[in-house]
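From the shared-data thread, chain only:
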Amino acid sequence: MELWFTEYQTKNLGLKCRIKETLFTGKSEFQDIAVVDTFDLGRMLVLDGVFQTSIFDEFIYHEMIAHVPLFVHPQPQNVLVIGGGDGGAVREAVKHSSVKSVEMVEIDGMVVEVSKKFLPEISVALNEGHPKLQLKIGDGIQHMKEAENKYDVIIVDCSDPIGPGEGLFTPAFYKDVYKALKPDGLFVQQTESPFYHQELIKRLHKDIMKLFPITRLYLANIPLYPSGLHCFTIGSKKYDPCQVALRIPEFATRYYNTEIQKSCFALPNFVKELIK
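Structure, as tokens:
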């Protein structure tokens, strides 16, 4: 008998994957967690029925959420990752030679442990206990309330704006992010699909612009996510992503490069209209 898993991206549209094997199912304090091995996308993490990451294309998301902001800042040293329980964002962040410390605050410890066991390629920095990394299992929203003038770059690697991730898409949270950043700091957040989450993108962009003098949206093509086109939003106190001098990575990448750093901020007209 064939096994299939479907993520319903709207009530009328879904992405369907044929499964070789279900490797894990469980329920944490916060959400349902599953890891499945698929024929075309490899092992995949699923939270509350929503595809989070897959071995097939995870490098795109994790490189783009980490390296774009870290190469906008000329000398990032102290980095915070909110969420990111699979470990992919911290795997990329610790590669930067200027980065001295990476704090990761993830609310769901089960996601971390499941990722370490079933997605070791992604969670390598967690498995190895990287010397730059400080892992805290706790509430990222509360962590932001208590932080002030501490970070050069904050990466909000959150799930969808429902369940545990809902509070990470609010004006109150963005005010705390602003407070936690140094005077020349910046942050990035994944902000969903410009095809299927247009009202959310409009709202978030306005909320971030009210606080940050420089607000930029950028794009990446990620097959796993709704429509295959995903966007991220940067809020920066000082550095404009479209005007900074490009630096060549001192490490190997699979998707990111200096041309991508520049071109990802070039937006189709329909996206420009969303955030105008």
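The domain at 58-275 is CATH 3.40.50.150 (Rossmann fold).
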